[in-house]
Description:
By secondary structure, the chain is of the alpha+beta class. Helices cover 23% and strands 48% of the residues. The protein is built from three helices and twelve strands. It has helices at 2-35, 102-105, 110-120, and strands at residues 38-49, 54-65, 68-73, 76-80, 85-89, 94-98, 121-131, 134-143, 150-158, 164-171, 175-188, 206-209. A twelve-stranded mixed beta sheet has the order 7-8-9-10-11-1-2-3-4-5-6-12. Residues 1-17 have low confidence and may be disordered.
Amino acid sequence: MKKNISILVFLLCVFGLSAQNAKDILDKANLAYNKAGGITASFTVNTEDVKGKTVYSQDGKAYLKGNKFKIDVPDGITWFDGKTQWVYAKGSDEVNVSNPTGEELAGVSPSVLLSLYNAGFKLNYKGEKKEKAKTVYIVELIPLGKKTEFSKMIVTIDKATNIFTSVSTYGKDGVDNHLIINKIQTGVNLADNIFIFNKKEYPGVEVIDLR
């Protein structure tokens, strides 16, 4: 009986430490992001259809400041000013406007992800690994809500800087997205209008309000 109790205590300590490590890591990432100011980053996103065994890859650039972002990829541009989101497919004649939920933004915006993890996810620390010259922490986030489009998210965070290096979401529809940060610069001066769709720059484009 004592042996069984000892095993149980050991397991509780291990899993408790795992959860605490995961939260500590994300807390430090949150602090680092808030101190970073304006951020520009180049990235690669790989969209994998698990059932069809196909991968679609594209490179892009991100502009981030607080809870605002602009994402520019070959297929289109997304702007988010902290409340409103504009999505424009390049070459099309319309831009869609919406007020997305936090869960919809979690895989795109570090600010949104870092504001949700305290209550919206079960956290699991998965250890460390080498990424080129960096050592990164691996944290798994499992959404507690049943309405999420993904079953889990895995993020890696640079051990030296506490800055994200990758975010992977595993879709319930069998489509996974893996975003890899290739280069990042912090402390960049970014004007707020960068994160708002400017209709004058896109003459003839119709604004479709989905709010």
